[in-house]
Amino acid sequence: MPKEVLVGLSGQLILLPLLTAGLIFLIKPQASLALGMILVASCPGGNLSNFMTHHAKGNTALSVTLTTLATSLAVLFTPINFYIWGNLLPETSALMTEIDIPFAGMMLNVFLLIALPLSLGLWVSHKFPNFALKAKKPMKYFSLGFFLIFIVLAFAANFSYFLEYIHIVFFIVLVHNAVAFIGGYSLGSIFGISEYNKRAITLEVGLQNSGLGLILIFNFFNGLGGMAIITAFWGIWHIISAYALSQYWSKR
Known about the structure:
By secondary structure, the chain is mainly alpha-helical. The protein is built from eleven helices and no strands.
């Protein structure tokens, strides 16, 4: 289904960063918060979207395809989207100049953190299916634990910042996440995608790999307060919002 795949990838890699830039233009958050929004929008979807799509009675195969392709393309699109929108928007361009992140270094990190493990995982699953089946459950718990540790570290390192700006962060993440879901669903409707497939596309656009975002923040931005808090809170909230949406769809 090339049409559905192309629409889903366009929503993830092009539409979401564009909508994020528009939202930043409207609400004008602090530079570090805006940069966190751009980084979240530049990250690929996480595999949580596959589970949520299955629960929502959407096309799980399409969801898995979109996650795999978006993750593979993230090596290019995550740094490209971040650099384009980070430097283009007046709210963040000054901070981007001050930080001066190496483009090639960011691309290498995304490759090592995302594309390489994905490739190894696919190779192991193909060559050693019995081992992959046994390792599946422990790896699931390991990845969840690893993600939670990064969220705790992000909040611990910026707790005073979080307490001071909690109301702003809460508002930004809720609106940003809602815009992502609405954008994904609307894009599917514009191109005449069926409800079954629109659910997969919507959840793929609305669920981002915030774990990757947090690792990049600690590697390149020294755990910059606004970015870390936005990304960490997104990592919590998108699970809640996606489950609520998938639960609603599962009853229909």
